[in-house]
Amino acid sequence: MSENLLFHSAKEYEDTISAKLNDTQLRKNLQSVMKTLKTNRKNLITSRYTDWEGLRELGKEVKAKALSNLDVLLDRFESNAIKNGFKVHWANDAKEANEIIYNLAREKHVSTILKGKSMASEEIHLNATLKEKGILATETDLGELIIQLIDEPPVHIVAPAIHKNRYQIGQIFKDKLNAPLESEPEKLNAIARKHLRKEFEDFKMGLSGVNFAIANEGAIWLVENEGNGRMSTTACDIHVAICGIEKIVESFEDACILDTLLVPSAVGAPITCYNNIITGPRKDGDGKDGDLDGPKEVHIVMLDNNRSKILSDSHYYRSLSCIRCGTCLNHCPVYDKIGGHAYLSTYPGPIGEVISPQLFGLDNCGYMVNLCSLCGRCSEVCPVKIPLADLIRDLRSEKALEGRGNVGSLSKTHPNKVEKFAMGVFASLATSGVKWRILLGLISIFSPLAKKISPILPGLKSWISCREFPHINASLHAKVKNIQGVIYE
Fold it and tell me: 178 vs 152, 170, 199, 435, 442, CA distance in Å?
């Protein structure tokens, strides 16, 4: 079923979040990886970049320029890509994209597709759709392979299996691949390599995502660290690339700026192991000693799937600047407690909270915007300066039916009258110095009683289920009251 048609209730979110919070191994795994990624990024930026903030500003300008001229650049890319021998397809939504890829596979008598990493394919649920039609899509990225073996979606947009440690991965390989039980990373990599090499021996169709599509050259740029992406795109007869229309940039120079921001932000390294720039299918003379190199055909599926609608919004269009580095997830104090699966959407974390309601509707993903403390870390670290925290706050207004009403549908979302009344009362108290001091005084007196009866009070019972009851210091309140009195006098 397409994600566009799914509705996740508040209870479904809350049950999932509670389960993740109680999964101590998950939290331990996530915190360990997040700490490593953040530390590596910080150290690299400090030691290798003389003007990181200036580079961020350039990246912001590159994406803003591309988005403001997207229609022109898309036409230019298509024209140049066709000249290079690419076959370009346009997909308005997930259904059309899946149909294009399925029809290509059927036409070429393909029963198995080997995939490099592609979040766009996750977005359109390509694997599940092809499986229903009798075609197996096999992941070759190590992280994607691990989660495919246990039938889970990615937990992170860059590192799909960071929620599993090496002991858990060893058990997965033992159970699913009949491999010996191992826990050393080198041995685990060897098991995966041996398994995948058999898949690569004889396959006709490979699939990938696209990091950057260069309009002036009609070329696509893929970055990776494992080499599986290069195998998936060069050792096959037919290569299919899925490209979100927002991945277009004007020139190689623009792409280089974004790549220089992407890699440090994603993995804390100055460059990836592999940069694959593809300018078309193989041509006569490619390869050595008569052995032709590269695929006979390269197809590019240009995916819209509500991106045009996002672009038309004068406020939220900035979310299309995302280069999918995942650093906002790595720095999010909510994500590292619950992991990506708790967001119940392809794209988790701060960027997921911004783009998922726009891609799939507030009906489906509106609850996600609650999973934010508005601490602002995501905005501070975004390499292209997307104001994520501001956009999340504004989407909360949309969800409460107090925004502009431009985001998705709200057929199942209704204002909570009790909540709205409570917020109105709070606003009245918080904007009056006299009322606020009286409120603090009453709280300091009655909080011990409220703490005792909170497990049976409906509102407080829900609130303390995942929070500590606040301690109100009466003496501190008195000091604050005296200070306020002086100020107001």
Answer: 19, 11, 16, 68, 65
Q: What tens digit of pLDDT does each residue of 162-207 get?
A: 999 999 999 999 999 999 999 999 999 999 999 998 888 889 999 9
Residue type, 15: D
Residue pLDDT, tens place only, 148-160: 999 999 999 999 9
- 190 Cβ contact list (under 8 Å, min separation 6): none
**Nearest residue to 441 (alpha-carbon basis) of 479, 488, 487, 486:** 479
> Cα–Cα distance between 50 and 285 in angstroms, integer?
43
pLDDT per residue over 192-249, tens digit each? 999 998 888 889 999 999 999 999 999 999 999 888 888 999 999 999 999 999 999 9
Max CA distance (Å), the chain: 91
Residues 374, 377, 383, 385, CA torsion sign: positive
> Helix or strand or coil: residue 95?
helix
- For the ranges 199-208, 257-266, 277-286, 422-431, the one whose mean pLDDT is highest: 257-266
The two structure tokens encoding residue 263: 């890699």
Q: What are the angstrom distances between the C-alpha of 68 and each of 71, 79, 320, 393?
A: 8, 19, 11, 24
Residue 435 DSSP symbol:
H
477 Cβ contact list (under 8 Å, min separation 6): 440, 441, 444
Q: Among 354, 388, 242, which Cα is nearest to 305's? A: 242
- How many CB atoms are closer than 10 A to CB 86? 24
263-266, Cβ contacts within 8 angstroms, sequence gap of 24 or more? 263/223, 264/41, 264/44, 264/45, 264/48, 264/49, 264/383, 265/41, 265/325, 265/326, 265/327, 265/381, 265/383, 266/158, 266/325, 266/326, 266/327
Tell me the pTM: 0.87
Query: CB-hemisphere CA count at 13 Å for 104?
Result: 25
Please check the confidence at residue 292 and state whether its pLDDT lies above 90: no
Query: What is the distance between the alpha carbons of residues 399 and 367, in angstroms, rounded to a whole number?
Result: 8
- Calpha distance 368→392 (Å, rounded): 9
pLDDT value at position 8? 81
